[in-house]
Amino acid sequence: MRKIICLITLALVFVSWNKKEVDYTLISGVITHKSSDWKIVSKDQSFSQTLKIDDQGKFSDTLRVSEGIYFLYDGKNFAKLYIENGAVIVVNADAADFNKTIKFSGKGSEATNYLAVKQQTEDKIMGDQKAFYSLEEAAFKAKSKEIKAGLETLLDGIKGISESYKTKEKRNINYSFLAKLDNYEKYHEYFAAKPSFKVSQGFLSELDGLSFENLEDFNFSEDYKKMIVSYHMKQAEKLSKSGSIAEDVAAIKSIGTISNVTIKNELLFSMAAVGITTTSDLKNYYKEFMDASSNDDNKKTVTQIYNKLLIVDKGQPSPKFVNYENNEGGKTSLADLKGKYVYIDVWATWCGPCMAELPFLKKMEEKYEGKNITFVSISADKASAHDKWKKMIIDKKLGGIQLMADKDFGSQFLKDYSIMAIPRFILLDPAGNIISSNAPRPAEEDKIVKLFTELGI
């Protein structure tokens, strides 16, 4: 009897082992002519694993990651791949001609190969993006439905994709269609050059009743995630107009109403981790985040950022910069500028949004010439771009005081202001105290004129 019980126990253990889900993915292959390390990187860059590739280009590794889209990346070339537990993916490529030679095979590679063909299919049907979003409403919606139908047909014809993936991907294709409709108003306004364009009543009827609380779709579909953000940004715009509250603070308040805790906390943190460094209402922004979030780690991280930002909040003495190179010759320090209001533009020659602000900044400088304000532009370019910086000042006839930071983004002045993205505009009073560490941009003419008028400039 004891022997039989032991055999039954062993059998149950064996069955349990066989039923246990595999919690990893195997990836191997050959990448020849590599010039740098190859990594597997998640879309949000929270995960990164360097592949151990030998001198012959061979590698074999184990990945323990959440199911989803990742990137095979070497700093120059990249390929999108879909990873799910139990997959055994084989990669072959020549890094010297990566795009033409990359091949994926093995168990679970079907979804990765589908993603490549999917992009090609969508691009072919859509055509030029400008022409696509310039279509009038009926034609645009018809073309968007054609893209959706083409992708669904493609997906149905792919062999070997798991039913789980196919089910979620069909919903994702629909979210992609809905996202195009949701984006149409702002894209059509831009590409068709129709200022203040608004879609007709009923154009977005397909979005009626759409739930924004589906965690599985949130984790799987980027378009679904973007639509949730879009919805809450629209809610924030309404709340801001009706409640005399800053729009970025209203966005945190709106996202805080999401009932799914995981979705709410992830969106709150992804928005606040950067948003808190650019808000014009630091204390209320922080309060709304702390009231809405229930993730202690996220709250701790944002609190650390908040405490650092308090030193550059309104009314605080501005951090100093000392002996920055002046394009006109010599060195300039912040202390040299006391006695007037100081409007600082932190920019760089490589920054597209910075370039877009320059015509508006020049217009501002002309409008307030001779007034009690000094305009200062601080370049965050690397030292290697010094000549490019000087040439751009001449070519674009840039005015004001043109300075170059001493260590680009590593400059202490930029660090003190927690500047992680540019352009960034700062306004100081004549005593060198902060009026706004994230002042309105020159392109926001109404806001900046209102602010300057209130200050008596």
TrEMBL record:
Signal peptide (UniProt feature, chain positions): none
Keywords tagged on the record: Cytochrome c-type biogenesis, Disulfide bond, Redox-active center
Main subcellular location: other
Keyword Glycosyltransferase assigned: no
Keyword presence, Nucleus: no
CDD domains the UniProt entry points to: TlpA_like_family
Compartments in which it is found: Cell envelope
Pfam families from the UniProt entry: Redoxin
Gene3D superfamilies: Glutaredoxin
SUPFAM superfamilies: Thioredoxin-like
Domain Thioredoxin: 312-457
This protein's name: TlpA family protein disulfide reductase
Species: Flavobacterium branchiicola
